[in-house]
Specification:
Length: 248
């Protein structure tokens, strides 16, 4: 966005910070400022428009309060993408859920390795600590924006999963069903909030002060066998969970 695209009329009764907020909001709505792009600096806008930095800062704060931008410490202010809301009323994988929400899902396989199950993984999969499991570390994206870092641990009998097929299909559940006939029937999921690890911060492109939603899920097949244990860190500024509740 060019600074010359912004006009502030100090003769109007509307406060300058609101005019600036509206101008920046219009730039986002019209596509001049796209998700992930940086807003002009406070200093640059203040100098160009003849405003105080306090006025510019207030406009930025208003946009942040509306959920339209995010502050990244030491980096600047950036346009936020569409907030993803997942409704918890059925068991679906990330790919299908993203498509249902009208988003373009993406997956980058960062690492695939056979490792010894730690205590949490062993307990979830009903095996002994140290048992070999396949661990898949994947970056999940929505409309090309990083949304979650996931670590999926698969039961030993699934450790020969074809990674080529997984990369081609994009969906782990579809790959498991086609190769092994394993289909998810139910899952138990817990959700908590915490600050990201250094690795999660780097992978998701967020500051260490931006919270993540930490999800843990154990997935079961039709025979009630746990076959998958997943630990995920979702960007707290871009993702939220919704529950559909009905009276009993």
């Amino acid at each position: 966005m060019r600074l010359t695209d912004i006009r502030i009329d100090k003769a109007l009764p509307t406060p300058a910070y609101l005019q600036l907020k509206e101008s920046l909001g219009h730039a986002m709505d019209s596509g001049l400022l796209t998700p992930g792009s940086a807003l002009p600096s406070e200093r640059g806008l203040a100098t160009s428009l003849g405003l105080s930095r306090m006025t510019v800062r207030r406009a930025f704060e208003e946009l942040e309060a509306d959920g339209r931008v995010e502050q990244r410490q030491g980096s600047g202010t950036y346009v936020r993408g569409q907030r993803v809301e997942q409704i918890i009323d059925s068991l679906t994988g990330f790919t299908d859920e993203a498509k249902r929400l009208g988003l373009r899902p993406g997956t980058k396989l960062l690492k695939a390795e056979r490792v010894g199950a730690d205590e949490a993984t062993a307990a979830a999969l009903g095996t002994e600590p140290g048992t070999t499991v396949l661990r898949l570390t994947r970056l999940r994206t929505a409309n090309d924006e990083a949304l979650a870092l996931q670590e999926a641990h698969l039961a030993t009998y699934l450790s020969e999963l074809s990674l080529d097929a997984l990369q081609h299909r994009g969906s782990l559940y579809r790959s498991l069903e086609e190769q092994f006939g394993v289909k998810p029937v139910r899952a138990r999921q817990t959700i908590g909030a915490r600050l990201p690890t250094r690795a999660e911060s780097a992978a998701l492109g967020i500051g260490r002060e931006v919270p993540v939603l930490a999800l843990e899920r154990t997935t079961y097949d039709a025979e009630e066998r746990p076959f998958e244990y997943v630990r995920s860190a979702y960007r707290g500024d871009s993702y939220r969970l919704a529950l559909d509740l009905r009276a009993s």
